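LAB NOTEBOOK - FOLDING QUEUE
OPERATOR: T.R.
BATCH SIZE: 2
PURPOSE: Compare the predicted structure-token outputs for two unrelated chains run back to back under identical settings.
PRIORITY: normal
REVIEWER: second-year student, initials M.K.

ITEM 1
FIELD SEQUENCE / FIELD STRUCTURE:
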Amino acid sequence: MENQTVGRVLGTDDSTPLEFWVAVANGQHLQLDDIIALDRILPTGEKVSIYGIVGQVRARHEGARFDSDVFLIADGVLPADVSEAAQIQVTRVVPETFVPPLPGSEVRKAVGAERDEALDMVEVEHRLPAGLTRDGQPVMLDLEFIDGTKGAHVNISGISGVATKTSYATFLLYSLFNSGVLGAAATNTKGLIFNVKGEDLLFLDHANTRVDEKDRERYAALGLEAGPFRSMRVLAPPRKGDPNGTPATGARTTGVRPLYWTVAQFCEQGLLPFLFADAEDERQQYTIVVQSVTAQLQRCARQSHTADGAVRIDGRTARTFSQLVSIVCDKLLPEDPDEDADPQWTGRSIYTGTINAFVRRLSSAERHVGHLIRADIDDAETHAIDLDSQQVTVVDLHMLHDRAKRFVVGVVLRQAFEAKEAAGTAEPLQFVVLDELNKYAPRDSSSPIKEILLDVAERGRSLGMILIGAQQTASEVERRVVSNSAVRVVGRLDAAEAGREQYGFLPAVQRQRATILKPGSMFVSQPRLPVPVLLEFPFPAWATRVAEADLSGGAGDGSAGGPQDQPADPFDGLV
């Protein structure tokens, strides 16, 4: 494809090394996000190539003086010409001699090798397919800013149900596993996905029946084959009251393992603080009690660990979470009013009101997490959460109370993080997809989960643990989690949210456009470019709900359900 001259640099607006205007030639047009190039010859004879992206386009009548002149011009009474001009935001200058383009200089659309120069992809060795421009050209990310070589982590913001945040997160994961960008390391690279809404992510290993030939062509343009994830396991909480611990996953019935911890694991691993991992708890005064009780439970578990995963505490056996809560409450608030609470359990100088507050919170947790902490299932002690047996592990949270969700997210993340620390090497990489970051790493409070997410954000790069986090509002997420993300992605935003400082990397025009983006369109900012690029990503080739799942065989798991009526919008219902 030949470079096409589309206009010349305007002489009636200032040109600067970072921004200038282009007059669009007759018969040509420029639209937002087009990529352009031009050259300037310096007095020394050196050629400087300037590349940029169209950030704004305007049209006006030249010769009109009053607003009403438009009617006279349209009727042919007044002579006037229509002029179009485009504002260019400079992306690269090669070599880096920052001089303004001269008025009258020819401007051309950048295609082929010039387009790669404009997007600074020429010297990128490992290109990760990230999406397509509106004219169907691929947009790549530099893997080194994701895998920890030069930077790490991806943060995605956007309105729920419209910005398709989780859909884009899973697309990036699919691209990582299937584009060849990871080379031989892709086989051992793992993905950990937390499913927080509905059953959207429980059928990733099934082909999507709604994918058509046009969708397949878009994948092919990115060097990808449209298809489902090849290796996946689902971990789901057991049904409440089920003595066998059968996973509660609704439509998916096979390829699922139960998600729970034995009482001994809960005590020995010090998991109690994760039951108090919401913002409200941090305003209370019973953290000393939490720490003391956690230490005592660890001591008891190490001294009296039973073969079936139960724990004995001073002659009493805790085989269920309810029994454990009863024992702890008796230690803190003895039935005999003349008997003092054991200071080893309460901590020193703790008032009765503080102990009562702790007991209330612990007791209220029983109905939400009791089915997740148990030693009343056969072979409970042999149960362990395995995050390495399949390439992708989906942890299903959608049927859990918010308090139980926080507990599961915190404990699973800590287990994964500690495993990476123990390995002592960054390879193989582990990618973690977590939506609703504002719940787990809120800006204005602290909790055990937030501390782990901060560890992942700040130390995960060196350990090979990469966070692909998403939220509706980045302004409500801990600043250090967001700022440590080398790649920032923005879908459709609420107008008030778009004006916040967290989106300062978006130029003013792009902030305005973010409020009207359609599903499947995202602004992507990466360190190699000073200007975010608008891209579209293909419709998921994997099922995002049971109604889309091809259950006829192949990667399918034989679960119940089948295709149903399809909504008109191909991204309808995606998150």
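ITEM 2
FIELD SEQUENCE / FIELD STRUCTURE:
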Amino acid sequence: MVRLYEYQGKGLLRRAGVKVPPGRAARSAAEATVIAREIGAPVVLKAQVFITGRAAVGGIKFAENAMAAERVAGRDFLGRTFRGQRCDVVLVERKLNVAREMYAAVVVDNDARMPLLIFSSVGGTGVEEIAANHPEALVKRYLDAARGLYGYEARELARRAGLRGRELVAVADVLVKLWRVARDAEARAAEINPLVVTDEGEVVAADCRVTADDYAVYRHPELDVQVAREFDRPPTELDLIAYNVEKDDYRGTFYFVQLAEGFAPEDRCVALHGAGGGGSMMSMDAALAEGFKVANFCDTSGNPPASKVYRAACILLAQKNVVGYFGSGSGVASQEQFHSARGLVKAFREVWLDVPCVERLGGNQEERAIRILTEYTKDLPAPVECYGKDTPARHCARRLRELVDGYDYGVRHEKPPGLPHNSSYSFRTVTGGTVSYDYARCEGCDSKVCVADCVPQILKLEDGRPALNIGAEEAARGRCTECLACEVECRARGNGGGRITLPIAGLHEYLKKTR
């Protein structure tokens, strides 16, 4: 599920015809001043953070005029953290004169597999409290997703909750429009709390919370969701970089969440690279039990290509000041583990790994994967140890602790110059990568391992040199699975003539800022 900020949810309500207080979001104190001046009345300022009970922690404040709004926005909101969440946006709205509060929501009932409309003519901190204290004011109705909610049905619900007259008609209209918002946004939940009646008799959505279905977000660019995952905070820059790798590549899973930023080496944070949700959580527990903190959660599973594992490893190692790299998953994966091993080898060699690494690559062909990862990283500055499914995650975490404790982090390791490469032949891959061959090197190669180990078998020998056995367009559409044999195996067992470049949008710029 994907949470929307209050100002985003109110934008959906406004477009649907539900009354919301005049105002908009500000990203600077000066902008808050302009908005308050346009409103021309006392305003309320609300920190746009994904927490409940904002008022209790100072996340909602009032200002009598524009100058006060500027002071409150700059001093009390923007740049501050509320329960660990930084506030970068503040909602500035007209202060309402509230006569009474109500509650309205449309939520997806997973058990019934239907949308459920909930309305209460009495407000409160939550629907559970309302149900306990005012059961007569609370009404519910399951909705047919295709049929929806008609006006007469909404009026009957409002009547059952105790409303009468013009108030009943106005609230019923809000309920119908709230249903349309939930349906059109494919929301898991759309909640107005409180729905208020003002002293002037208007029915206004004073606060709202909309949660969208992450699997449907791609159909709704109007929601302006950056990362279609459930976060309790705004995504970090590295979260965005990782998500952009995943969102258009459906081969396997790359789930990444950054858990810590700005840590120092003495915090003993490790980059965590799991495979399988349960196995990843088990491995996280093992790392914590050995005295580490984890900089991130990461899961590459579901038979990801080597290229996705490579990109994941590069992103994990972009986290400054990690003291180690811990890879460990479920140990029962059906995917061929040598693909993951090749992805890791390519990443470790490119960044010239300088922190200890322990990998647990359990699953199909794990022996081959262990050999690849162990043998192809022997010349790296930091030790790389690899284990299979029969070695417990706790043992692997303990080995990482021992390696970290004995490693000299004060030595600077310069990456040696790479092999010269002059592209003689190249073709594109499905994720924008480029496979290229230096035929001068290929002619001196006896193994032709790039062709022999090409998993999709799309290469052939042409005059003793590797070339596509299919059309270039077909390779770019996905027949080239980016198994990385063309580079990893070629470098280790051939003559270094093959190379694949795999772009990671935004990572280079991120490293320039953080290194």
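REVIEWER COMMENT (ITEM 2): The chain has four domains: 22-94, 98-223, 237-406, 425-501.
FOLLOW-UP: none requested
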